[in-house]
Amino acid sequence: MLDDAGRDAAFDASARVHNVGSFRFFFATQRWEWSDEVAALHGYSPGEVEPTTALLARHKHPDDRDDFDQLVARMLSDHSPFSSRHRIIDTHGTVHHVVVIGQPMVDESGVPIGTEGFYLDMDGWETNVANDQIDHHISRFRESQGVIEQTKGMIMFAYQVSAEQAFEVLKWRSQTTNVKVSSLCRSILTGTQAIEVPEAVRRSFDHLLLTAHKSVDHEEPTAGGQPADGGDLRV
Question: Which of 22, 28, 20 is nearest to 7 (CA)?
Answer without folding.
Answer: 22
